[in-house]
Design a protein that fits this description.
Layout lengths: L2 H12 L11 H7 L14 H22 L23 H9 L14 E2 L4 H6 L10 H17 L6 E6 L6 H13 L5 E6 L7 H5 L7 H6 L9 E2 L5 E4 L8 H5 L2 H13 L3 E6 L8 H6 L4 E7 L5 H10 L5 E7 L10
Parallel strand pairs: 1-4, 2-6, 2-7, 3-5, 3-6, 7-8
Helix pairs in contact: 3-4, 6-7
Length: about 350
């Protein structure tokens, strides 16, 4: 039996004989395909039916947005074109587009709820955040550090780094901020900076952003992680401030809840690198505790300030920890880097 005859039999059973003639001409057969397909036989939907279907789809999309916590926005674009939106944000029309394509991953749009702030470039440069510059000798050094870290971590699937130092004033937080910005500017991944120096938090000060809500609010007031995220106006970079000082930081970092939070941050987005700022080893064991559920550790030292004895003691304390290397701050930079 030919395909057309099979379709005709289907039409008879479905009561659609008024749409298909027994012996159609060539022109009639061509025009009949808008009403009859080989997979499904039926009349073209009326305007009322199309409107009802669109309303049904609208309700389904709104429900998906409600469950994901994404606010709905006014519509007005064609569903046939994927609308453009700021990175990390999703509009109602974009949701419709993804829904029409077979669904959307609501978890991947967490940035739609991130607080947006604008940074003061003069303030950043005054605080030695040179990674924001395209051409700078110091920024090139951070690019070299980025290359070395990523070449070490990517083959192993690692994406989390603890940064610490032997003692205070060695520049660990400055290293965290500059390295984070430098990695974020490479388009292959995103970066999250988490301030876990709960004894003396400083990331917010370097960037000029509010210290709260942050980690302290997460533990004291059950503020959800999504409400702590800050986008400092640098594409692909997200910051989680400390929220304030916590004298019992070692117990907090060693808690099961902290381990769950770190694992959540680490595993949700494989292409995101997470850098944790922690107190110096001479102050408290927070970095050692955190290192037990983080991939690798970067030790920061300061030229003409950190002694060999300091480094020997620190490496001894970090026995069993995966140390990526040691970064020396305030060293002399060769002029050859001004290529």
């Amino acid at each position: 039996m030919s395909q057309f005859k099979k379709a005709l039999e289907k039409a008879k059973k479905a009561g659609q004989l008024d749409k298909v003639k027994s012996h159609p001409t060539e022109s009639e057969r061509a025009s009949s395909y808008k009403y009859v397909s080989f997979d499904q036989v039926g009349a073209e939907p009326s305007r009322e039916e199309r409107v009802a279907k669109e309303k049904e789809e609208e309700i389904s999309v709104q429900e998906a947005l409600r469950r994901s916590g994404t606010p709905a926005e006014p519509s007005g674009l064609s569903k046939d074109v994927a609308p453009s939106a700021p990175k990390g944000e999703i509009s109602l029309e974009e949701a419709k587009y993804h829904y029409a394509q077979g669904g959307m991953d609501t978890e991947s749009h967490v940035y739609s709820q991130t607080r947006q702030v604008s940074l003061d470039q003069d303030l950043l440069l005054d605080r030695k955040v040179f990674a924001i510059l395209e051409q700078n000798i110091v920024a090139d050094q951070y690019k070299l550090l980025r290359t070395m870290m990523l070449h070490r971590m990517r083959p192993l699937g690692h994406n989390t780094i603890v940064v610490t130092s032997s003692k205070e004033r060695e520049g660990k937080t400055l290293t965290v901020v500059n390295l984070g910005i430098t990695i974020a500017r490479e388009t292959r991944q995103t970066v999250m900076l988490v301030d876990l120096d709960l004894r003396q938090p400083m990331i917010h000060s370097y960037l000029g952003i509010n210290i709260s809500p942050g980690i302290r609010d997460y533990f004291s007031d059950d503020v959800p992680l999504k409400d702590m995220l800050v986008n400092p106006g640098i594409e692909s970079l997200t910051v989680v401030p400390a929220g304030g000082r916590m004298p019992n930081s070692t117990e907090i970092i060693g808690s099961y809840r902290m381990e769950l939070m770190v694992n959540e941050i680490k595993n949700r987005y494989p292409d995101r690198y997470v850098i944790f700022d922690t107190p110096p080893l001479a102050s408290c064991p927070d970095a050692i505790v955190l290192a037990s559920y983080v991939d690798t550790l970067l030790l920061v030292a300061r030229s003409d300030y950190t002694t060999g004895a300091d480094l020997t003691k620190s490496v001894g304390l970090l026995k069993g920890v995966n140390i990526a290397g040691v970064v020396f701050n305030e060293g002399k930079v060769s002029r050859q880097w001004a290529y």
